[in-house]
Amino acid sequence: MKITIISGSPKGEKSVTLQYLLYIQKHNPQHTFETFHVGQTIKSIEKNKPKFDEIIESVKTSDAVFWITPIFYFLIPSQLKRFIELIYENKAEDAFKNKYAAAVSTSIRFFDTTAHNYLHAVCDDLKMKYVNFNSLDMWDMFSGSKRKQLRLFAENFFSIVENKEPVSIQYPPLSTDKIKAYTPGEAKSKVDNSDKKIVLLADGYNKNTNLGKMISRFSDSFTNDIQIVDINQLDMKGGCLSCIRCGYDNKCIYTDGFTDFWKTTMKNADIIIFAGEIRDRYLSAQFKMVFDRSFFMNHTPFLIGKQMGFIISGPLGQIANLNYLFSAYVESQNSNFLDFITDEEEDSKLIDSLIDTMADHSITYSNQGYIRPHTFYKEGGMKIFRDDVYGRLRFTCQADHRWYKDNGIYDTFPQRNKFVNRMNRKFMFLTRFKSIREKVYREVNTEMLRPIHAIAIDPDK
Ligand SMILES: Cc1cc2nc3c(=O)[nH]c(=O)nc-3n(C[C@H](O)[C@H](O)[C@H](O)COP(=O)(O)O)c2cc1C
């Protein structure tokens, strides 16, 4: 059997993820593997059509494809995203049709799920036979039981391919049939933004497209100009190289204008709007590059306390994963999520009123300092970061470590909570005795509620 490996890591041969594929290869010498480092060589693949064709030819002559990738910012690296776009731009989808596929990633498992959902959906769109994914921790190689699971994953995959087993489709094709031309109406009552800095990151600003019209209509909802930044004009020489030089002091190895832009324009904004078109199952690779490059701040929330909204052209309503991903992104920045406005609405008037409402809320909530309480996204994500930055990432991510110390992130370790420790010591001891145990379990709910209820009904609080 021949397997094409499409590797998304910008590190090429030095990719951690690649090592897991080398391991699979070692245990399956009966198969032939051909690897393409698309993440590392994307610029030359873009410019050099024969290079792209060579990959497509390999896919055509393969029985299966392994997508292997690090997780970057809730997804895959911009470089691999760009490769997926090139498949469509070069009309090479047919090469992938009916090929069996699996995805292997390494990460610290912070939003690996959204990345795998994305890859699965892309495979379904390409009419591949997507079998399974394997989301590995960077260090799983050190564990015998994890290696065993990896061997089984590969064996099962090869067996499914050999036996030509059927696979189910999880993501039906997207439809843009309902999206109509948007005709904006006039913005009647404008919102006063004189003391607010509003930055709108736009993936192109063509005033004739639905996206361009929604951007203009949003801008017109305010008394004063807002800052519209076309991400295609940003001084950004390339995607994140994953060199982790930024780990020591948040300095990016690139000397282009991106870091300054993020530290000044973005950091100083009160309100940030992201505006782009759906490209496959995300926004464009260029947008992904913006998020990836912001990794120079590593695992610290940087755009704290902003109001963030999204203006999107395309079938966002059919891509629940993207909704989930961006909501999680906003929370991870300690910011407030405003809305997703898309051109999927039936009626242009409704889009106008949604835009007016988002404009109004952005200013009101910014004045109030309102941030919707966070959910599992930030709670869970921050605990993963806290444990890893305190632990194995500490010496590489020293800037994070300093920030976490200064901002009390380590104080949230449960073992540091004196009150909880005292309570547990006391009740662990007392509940050894049957009669006390019964009393405790009889009364635990009432006792737990008592202090919370007292504040809930306290007229002074
Ligand atoms: C720009 C950037 C973004 C990252 N984003 C995530 C992330 O969202 N979730 C996660 O668990 N790990 C994230 N990581 C960590 C990588 O996924 C991890 O180090 C991976 O093992 C690297 O694999 P590679 O050596 O094959 O490139 C990120 C790393 C970089 C450089």
Structural overview:
This protein has 461 residues and is an alpha/beta fold. It has 4 domains: 2-162, 3-Layer(aba) Sandwich (Rossmann fold); 198-368, Flavodoxin domain (Rossmann fold, 3-Layer(aba) Sandwich); 383-411, no CATH class; 417-457, no CATH class. The chain is 45% helix and 14% strand. It contains 16 helices and 10 strands. The strands form 2 sheets. Strands 2-1-3-4-5 form a 5-stranded parallel sheet, sandwiched between helices. Strands 7-6-8-9-10 form a 5-stranded parallel sheet, sandwiched between helices. Helix 11 (320-332) packs across helix 13. The longest helix has 24 residues, at 434-457. The chain starts with a strand and ends with a helix. The relative contact order is 0.09. The chain binds flavin mononucleotide. Residues 9, 11, 15-17, 70-74, 106-112, 138, 240, 242, 292, 295 line the site of flavin mononucleotide (FMN).
